[in-house]
Specification:
369 residues; Rossmann fold; OB fold (Dihydrolipoamide Acetyltransferase, E2P); six-stranded mixed beta sheet; 8 helices; binds adenosine-5'-triphosphate; binds magnesium ion
Length: 369
């Protein structure tokens, strides 16, 4: 379990085992949406499903909520199966991309809705709604209609509506995607604080890697219905299990290399016609793919003992400058802080390249994709 996870008395562990789900089309064809999907969430943990459009993220959430029937699989909350329970007995709070608030109902009525249809006593409804609105900081906006709120406030009403039932599990499906960039960053920080203070186990779907990085205790990267890697944001970024994962969470240089030999715990790997040293325990195979993030490429004066290339393009991005550098047939991306101290180089300069050793990650080379 990650160290900053708050475990409350009521927080539940979620175990998803061997989930399979195909959709059957009227043409007779079937679309496999989720394939042998496995995932564990510790009590109070926030895990993000991150992956490209169509990889099965929404289908997993809907299956957990009981809105999609499983072909195969088991869903356990604290060890008890909920796979055969109807949606209303699963105690899950679902927040959708479009908040789906009732436009003609006030904030109070929207949040109270699920309690009302369960015919909860009036006093209990009032108390629960007040506490959910307080949790999201909207205690003064109860009488307003959704149309009289900002996008961020509407989104928080949707969260309050999910919280009011005191769910065992919170499910978020791209809840911030309709907000503008600045608001998205602000609301995701609020969501993070709220989730930690409530301590409710949460599965969060996004295809935005920054959002996943900033919110998650752990990230599960999905590809074509399966989990490709689960890890902390740092593990996913610095030690990706595949090129797909590496590329999904940021820019990366992927250079084919050959291991030439080892001694004293260090190995020599040939890349770009030059040799670099890496700890032997990082070598996964004789033919490797050397992954280096742009910020781990240092520009230095050209010299015979390191690769050199010509700067083809520079791009000023505010906080950093990115350089595209041609070394033979390979294009290397390097990034430097844009603060004054950095050695600015210009297009068509020739520069030497150094790779920060700690930031080098090796994968077995599996041939061109
Ligand atoms: N009701 C349905 N009928 C047929 N195919 C479906 C249905 N719902 C989803 N699919 C297919 O299942 C696959 C997974 O869809 P899903 O909505 O889970 O993807 P996603 O990861 O949430 O994508 P996005 O990021 O675009 O929301 C896709 O190929 C999709 O076309
Ligand atoms: Mg989706």
């Amino acid at each position: 379990m990650t160290k900053n996870t708050i475990k409350t008395a009521s927080a539940k562990a979620l175990t998803v085992l061997g989930l399979n789900k195909s959709f059957h089309l009227t043409t007779g064809r079937s679309v496999p949406a989720v394939r042998d999907f496995n995932l564990n969430l510790a009590p109070g943990e926030l895990v993000t499903l991150l992956g490209p459009s169509g990889c099965g993220k929404t289908t997993v959430l809907r299956a957990l909520a009981g809105l999609e029937e499983l072909d195969e699989g088991e869903i356990l909350l604290d060890g008890y199966s909920i796979a055969n329970l109807p949606p209303h007995r699963r105690r899950m709070g679902f927040v959708f991309q479009n908040y789906a608030l009732f436009p003609h109902m006030t904030v109070l009525e929207n949040v109270a809705y699920s309690l009302r249809i369960r015919r909860s006593p009036d006093a209990e409804v009032r108390a629960k709604v007040a506490s959910a609105l307080l949790a999201v900081g909207l205690e003064n906006l109860g009488p307003r209609l959704p149309g009289q709120l900002s996008g961020g406030q509407q989104q928080r009403v949707a969260v309050a509506r999910a919280l009011v039932m005191k769910p065992d599990l919170l499910l978020f499906d791209e809840p911030l995607s309709s907000l503008d960039t600045k608001l998205r960053v602000q609301v995701r920080a609020e969501l993070r604080r709220l989730q930690k203070s409530l301590g409710t186990t949460t599965l969060y779907v996004t295809h935005d890697q920054d959002e996943a990085m900033s919110l998650s205790d752990r990230i599960a990267v999905m590809r074509a219905g399966k989990v490709e890697q689960v890890g902390t944001p740092e593990e996913i970024y610095a030690r990706p299990a595949s090129l797909f994962v590496a590329e999904f969470v940021g820019k990366v240089n992927a250079l084919p290399g050959r291991v030439e030999g080892s001694s004293n715990g260090r190995s020599t790997v040939e890349i770009l016609g030059h040799r670099i040293q890496v700890p032997t325990d990082r070598i996964p195979a004789a033919q490797v793919l050397v992954l280096v993030r742009p910020e781990a490429v240092r520009l230095c004066p050209p010299s015979a003992d390191r690769p050199a290339g010509r700067v083809e393009e520079t791009e000023y991005l505010g906080d950093r400058i990115e350089y595209r550098i041609r070394v033979g047939t390979t294009l290397i991306v390097a990034a430097q802080s844009a603060l004054g101290g950095a050695s600015r180089v210009a297009e068509s300069d020739t520069v030497g390249l150094e790779f920060v050793e700690d930031a080098i990650h090796l994968l077995p080379f599996v041939g061109p994709a």
